[in-house]
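Long-time lurker. I teach an intro course on protein structure, and each term I like to show students one example going from raw sequence to a predicted 3D structure in token notation. This year I'd like something fresh instead of my usual example. Would anyone be willing to generate the tokens for the chain below so I can use it in lecture? Attribution to the forum is fine with me.
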Amino acid sequence: MTDPLHTPHDRAAIPLAPSLDDSLVDAHMPTRLPLIGARVVRVCGLAILLGLVVGGVARLLTMLIGVVTNLAFHQTWSTAFTSPAGHHLGAWVIVVPVIGGVIVGAMARWGSRAIRGHGIPEAMEQVLTNESRIPARMTWLKPVSSAIAIGTGGPFGAEGPIIATGGALGSLLGQRLPVSADERKTLLAAGAAAGMAAVFSAPVAAVLLSIELLLFERRARSLLPVALAAVTGTGVRFALEGPGPVFPMPALAAVTPMALVVYALLGLLMGVAGVLVTRLTYGIEDAFERLPIHWMWWPALGGLVVGAVGYVMPATLGVGYDNITAVISGRLGLAAMALLAFAKLLSWSVALGSGTSGGTLAPLFTIGGALGGVCGVALSAWPLLHVDPHMAALIGMAALFAGASRALMTSAVFVFETTMQPHALLPLLAACTTAYLVSGLMMRHTIMTEKIARRGVHVPTDFVADRAG
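-- Reply from a regular --
Happy to contribute to a lecture. Here you go:
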């Protein structure tokens, strides 16, 4: 009797292990892969166009942040991406983030509450519960509110808002065209990947972030468009700003076996720190929830803390990409790095917990890099360990983010791409893996999923073959 699951065409296929042929059939899995269809090619074309648009939007967002920063802190009109740290406002600097918080709170109340927070959890929620449909108004509300929050001193990076904006643009494109829900999800992820790639010149990390936090799958129909969008977004950045590393630093040497063990153990420590940072952030958010005032005013209260911390330590104001470069380049001493880690954590956690608009990547990289640098300087006192403080700072950057977000591959590859240090890949992978292990043992949800998990949204964590066909 002929098996209906086997056709003469199927029997011509040669499985990787011939003995697995019947096993694949029993599991209702095809023994031959289908060809890529015309719809995938169409979505790839849309993803390339989306990458071009998002790459331009990323540049416009950084220019807008520059305008707000220069007006608020330097009283000049310029689109240059400058730091607020060189201001001459004195104690009046405390008021600037408060004003920004009032404006963002008003935009959230009368525009959309979805602009609050760092954007990625909200995008995940739309993917999982609303067929990747993000309201069209988010394409301008999120970047404008984030530019105001960051430009008035908010301790966030520009990457979170542009990832959210790119995802919103991809979703909007998918809502305007006759595509399926899966194709719309792919366009959302492609826009997000293009945004991250356009900010950091990190296309591979952008693709991995989309797989680990937005797509919840790894199939050609989604991977190819997302990869093309990330490449296009990076190409736009290269054309506008050049191909150099975002965080330049001295060249690192290959690690010794002893140093590799130390860096893996440092990853364990950073995993614990990632758990503590996540719990602190949501604890502060819970504290704001108990305040007897309308949530519209919470960002202003958070801004008061941001301004006070910024008055004492101006380096905590704004995006702080220069802080990351200073840490990994060894330009800061042990005390300066310890103070930066503490002050940035205080400012960022209160600001994010207050519900203002901003991201998590750059602050976590700053905090993790400073903590790793402190550990590296301390451990370098024992020459037998062969610890390089520069490498330890990179380990801290990646491992803290891996522990807080459990985006393991994204964390390791991101730090490599933004610094162009090939000898860092092996210790980065070791440390991010141990950080993930500790985080998984200590924390059920992550800094990205805790918020939506509290609203009853189940977030997939494991990708497996669909045996139902």
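Some talking points for your students: The mean pLDDT is 86. Residues 38-74 form the longest helix (37 residues).
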